[in-house]
Amino acid sequence: MSNEMLLVEGQPKGNRGRKTWFIVVLLLLIATCVLVFYFLFNKDLNFEAYKTVVGKTTENSLGRFTLNEIIIDDNQILLNATFKPVKDLNVDYQIFFFPQVFVNGKEFTVRNGGQSIAHSDKTYTIYSSVKLRELPKDEIIDLDIRYNDWNGEKKIDEPWEFQVEASQKQLQEDRKAFSVEKKVKLLDGQEITIEKIVSTPISTTIYFHSENSLLNEAIHFKIQSASGESWNFDFAYPLNEDYTKWGVRLDALYLTGKSYKLIPTAANGSELGSAVKIGGK
Description:
The protein is mainly beta.
């Protein structure tokens, strides 16, 4: 039986060097995260076209760390790794290693989250989700991946580092973008502009911005298909330090229809603004 915990790192406004850590222990959220990572990295599912198999191992005084594979998504990088601690290292199942990722020599990270799974042989599967403010459009990108700290607090003197060349070619071919560019006034008085929705076989993301920093960050959305099926989008995250550019993502959703409706909602599901038509004529 494996033990699971989810940890999310947020970078607050005004100080990217200072990190605020949120440990989310709600069983429902943990179960959802487990299902998402299983969905993406399960070898029985056809995501091979979006994976880059790495299989590289490096060691330091803490133990042996293997980067197994990565998946490139729209402004997101998913990583799957294995950690084997040295015999005398005292660790439990609540262990996290968040990678610092440079893309073509630049850092675009805005949010870092992940999950660890402890196994009976005292190894750990380390899943990481790195959200980016943007990704270069090159078909081939160079990744410099560094695991620098332990549980977000303890610096690793000899970080595990990996250099990986990854392809975005298939993702770019399968990526669907819905231009929106609609202003929506919410019931609490805030006004946002919904820029676009980007959908891939891995996830769907809504991008929006505001002229001023949002006072209420708890903005949720619902996308509804022509047949009435709907999906809720929660947990928006900032894409800049001014808190004026935002994204909200739902993993394992690929929009393949021609038209949808986008509705801003409150946490309880009540509508905060009028529906916006997506796609179609």
